[in-house]
Amino acid sequence: MSAYRKAIDLIQARLEVNPRDASALAFSADYYAMLEQEPQARDRLSRALEVAPADAEVLFRAAILYNHFGNTEKALDYLTKSVAAGYSQTAIRDTPDFDRLRDDPRFRALSVRPPQTKSRS
Q1: Which of 44, 88, 100, 118 is the most exposed place for a label (fewest CB within 10 A)?
Q2: Cα–Cα distance between 93 and 97 in angstroms, integer?
Q3: 5-57 pLDDT, tens per residue?
Q4: Percent of the chain's residues with pLDDT above 90
Protein backbone atom coordinates (compact mmCIF):
# COMPACT_ATOMS: atom_id res chain seq x y z
CA MET A 1 0.00 0.00 0.00
CA SER A 2 2.88 2.38 0.59
CA ALA A 3 3.72 2.14 -3.12
CA TYR A 4 0.29 3.59 -3.98
CA ARG A 5 0.76 6.39 -1.47
CA LYS A 6 4.17 7.17 -2.96
CA ALA A 7 2.69 7.13 -6.48
CA ILE A 8 -0.04 9.55 -5.38
CA ASP A 9 2.58 11.89 -3.92
CA LEU A 10 4.56 11.81 -7.18
CA ILE A 11 1.46 12.43 -9.27
CA GLN A 12 0.41 15.26 -6.98
CA ALA A 13 3.65 17.02 -7.87
CA ARG A 14 2.78 16.62 -11.57
CA LEU A 15 -0.71 17.99 -10.94
CA GLU A 16 0.71 21.04 -9.22
CA VAL A 17 2.46 21.87 -12.49
CA ASN A 18 -0.55 20.94 -14.67
CA PRO A 19 -3.82 20.36 -12.80
CA ARG A 20 -5.46 19.34 -16.10
CA ASP A 21 -3.10 16.41 -16.77
CA ALA A 22 -5.77 13.82 -17.59
CA SER A 23 -3.37 10.89 -17.45
CA ALA A 24 -2.09 11.85 -14.01
CA LEU A 25 -5.64 12.36 -12.77
CA ALA A 26 -6.77 8.97 -14.12
CA PHE A 27 -3.81 7.06 -12.70
CA SER A 28 -4.21 8.76 -9.33
CA ALA A 29 -7.88 7.77 -9.35
CA ASP A 30 -6.84 4.14 -9.66
CA TYR A 31 -4.24 4.50 -6.92
CA TYR A 32 -6.82 5.97 -4.58
CA ALA A 33 -9.12 3.08 -5.47
CA MET A 34 -6.43 0.57 -4.54
CA LEU A 35 -6.21 2.33 -1.16
CA GLU A 36 -10.02 1.99 -0.82
CA GLN A 37 -10.41 5.76 -0.82
CA GLU A 38 -13.46 5.81 -3.05
CA PRO A 39 -14.45 9.50 -2.74
CA GLN A 40 -10.95 10.65 -3.73
CA ALA A 41 -10.84 8.07 -6.52
CA ARG A 42 -14.16 9.20 -7.97
CA ASP A 43 -13.18 12.86 -7.71
CA ARG A 44 -9.94 12.30 -9.63
CA LEU A 45 -11.71 10.17 -12.23
CA SER A 46 -14.41 12.77 -12.70
CA ARG A 47 -11.76 15.43 -13.26
CA ALA A 48 -9.87 13.22 -15.74
CA LEU A 49 -13.04 12.50 -17.73
CA GLU A 50 -13.90 16.19 -17.75
CA VAL A 51 -10.50 17.04 -19.24
CA ALA A 52 -10.25 14.12 -21.69
CA PRO A 53 -13.61 12.35 -22.13
CA ALA A 54 -12.51 10.41 -25.22
CA ASP A 55 -8.95 9.49 -24.19
CA ALA A 56 -8.47 5.70 -24.43
CA GLU A 57 -6.19 5.51 -21.38
CA VAL A 58 -8.52 7.61 -19.22
CA LEU A 59 -11.47 5.42 -20.25
CA PHE A 60 -9.48 2.27 -19.45
CA ARG A 61 -8.53 3.64 -16.03
CA ALA A 62 -12.23 4.38 -15.42
CA ALA A 63 -13.00 0.73 -16.17
CA ILE A 64 -10.39 -0.39 -13.64
CA LEU A 65 -11.85 1.90 -10.98
CA TYR A 66 -15.45 0.78 -11.51
CA ASN A 67 -14.40 -2.86 -11.63
CA HIS A 68 -12.47 -2.44 -8.39
CA PHE A 69 -15.55 -1.12 -6.64
CA GLY A 70 -17.74 -3.91 -8.06
CA ASN A 71 -19.70 -2.00 -10.68
CA THR A 72 -19.47 -4.49 -13.54
CA GLU A 73 -21.85 -2.62 -15.84
CA LYS A 74 -19.90 0.63 -15.69
CA ALA A 75 -16.59 -1.25 -15.96
CA LEU A 76 -17.74 -2.95 -19.14
CA ASP A 77 -19.17 0.31 -20.48
CA TYR A 78 -15.84 2.06 -20.00
CA LEU A 79 -13.95 -0.88 -21.48
CA THR A 80 -16.19 -0.68 -24.55
CA LYS A 81 -15.48 3.05 -24.83
CA SER A 82 -11.74 2.50 -24.38
CA VAL A 83 -11.64 -0.08 -27.19
CA ALA A 84 -13.64 2.26 -29.45
CA ALA A 85 -11.07 4.97 -28.66
CA GLY A 86 -8.24 2.63 -29.68
CA TYR A 87 -7.16 0.93 -26.45
CA SER A 88 -5.45 -2.43 -26.94
CA GLN A 89 -7.74 -5.43 -26.61
CA THR A 90 -4.69 -7.52 -25.78
CA ALA A 91 -3.84 -5.21 -22.89
CA ILE A 92 -7.41 -5.52 -21.62
CA ARG A 93 -7.22 -9.30 -21.86
CA ASP A 94 -3.90 -9.38 -20.00
CA THR A 95 -4.82 -6.96 -17.19
CA PRO A 96 -5.19 -8.94 -13.94
CA ASP A 97 -7.61 -6.36 -12.53
CA PHE A 98 -10.28 -7.90 -14.74
CA ASP A 99 -9.83 -11.52 -13.63
CA ARG A 100 -13.31 -11.59 -12.13
CA LEU A 101 -14.79 -10.65 -15.52
CA ARG A 102 -13.07 -13.42 -17.51
CA ASP A 103 -16.19 -15.57 -17.76
CA ASP A 104 -18.44 -12.70 -18.80
CA PRO A 105 -19.16 -12.99 -22.54
CA ARG A 106 -19.21 -9.19 -22.86
CA PHE A 107 -15.68 -9.03 -21.46
CA ARG A 108 -14.49 -11.83 -23.75
CA ALA A 109 -15.92 -9.98 -26.76
CA LEU A 110 -14.00 -6.85 -25.77
CA SER A 111 -10.72 -8.55 -24.99
CA VAL A 112 -10.30 -10.77 -28.03
CA ARG A 113 -9.57 -9.39 -31.43
CA PRO A 114 -11.77 -10.76 -34.18
CA PRO A 115 -9.84 -12.80 -36.73
CA GLN A 116 -8.40 -10.76 -39.57
CA THR A 117 -9.88 -11.55 -42.96
CA LYS A 118 -7.65 -11.63 -45.97
CA SER A 119 -8.71 -9.36 -48.78
CA ARG A 120 -8.87 -10.85 -52.22
CA SER A 121 -6.78 -9.12 -54.79
Answers
A1: 118
A2: 10
A3: 999 999 999 999 999 999 999 999 999 999 999 999 999 999 999 999 999 99
A4: 88
Q: Please say whether the dihedral angle defined by the alpha carbons of residues 71, 64, 104 and 88, taken in this order, is positive or negative.
A: positive
Distance, in Å, from the CA atom of 79 to the CA atom of 62, rounded to the nearest integer, reads 8
Give the integer Cα–Cα distance in Å for 78 and 59.
Answer: 6
Residue 4: per-residue pLDDT: 95
Domain covering 2-111: architecture:
Alpha Horseshoe (1.25)
Beta strands in 1-121 (DSSP E): none
Task: Say how far apart CA 29 and CA 42 lie, in whole Å.
Answer: 7
SS3 85: coil
Name the phi and psi angles at 95, rounded to 5: -85, 115
Contacts of 5 (CB under 8 A, 6+ apart): 35
